Amino acid sequence: xxxxxVLRLASYNIQKCVxxxxxxxxxxILQVLEGMRADIVVLQEADKRLPPRPAALPQFMLDExxxxxxDLGGAGSLGWHGNAVIWRGDAISVRQTGHHDLxxxxxxxxxxxxxxxxxxPLRVMGMHLGLLSASRRRQITHIRQFGADLEDMPTVWAGxxxxxxxxxxxxxxxxxxxxxxxxxSFPAAQPLGALDRIxxxxxxxxxxxxxxEDRPAHIASDHLPIWADLHLEx
Length: 234
What we know:
The chain is α+β, with helices and mostly antiparallel strands. It is built from five helices and twelve strands.
């Protein structure tokens, strides 16, 4: 049986490039990105906290490493509300982008990128949800609602969902998305919580998925990155 071509998508909360040793070392994040061999990476906490929210992971370092950065409209920032999307490979191109403010107690946002990829058109939604349960529920509902108004396209959600519960809380809020089985990714030194998640929309299948634990991921951030090898039905 022929294995379909796959695209590796990853999600990584890089904690502004500050590691567990409290040192800001963007080069360690680049080492982790290199080791994952992902085609598309959704990042959280990619910008510093205070306005004008400059990029924590310098753009010139990504350029030198061969990464392309999706322009999400944040002048001097890597992304929007700390959410960024980067990709590698001449066979991938960006169709359209967007960003969305999310409701809740804390300022939060989501980003949207429609790609042409070797496996077909793919919409990637990147997000970093709030710390409060009520905020997360409102944010998921908001993303679901504006997603329903978009053109039909195979869709993937990825990010730091900040959900500690092992019950299918997220799955119940958005039944049209299929969350991959939770894998502990936080805290990086001794993972207990599956805060980082990937969810697949209709037509998107997974060949394999996992948590990237190779050094220096254990210290580069307080989260480990997660990844999934995707293909489209048909």
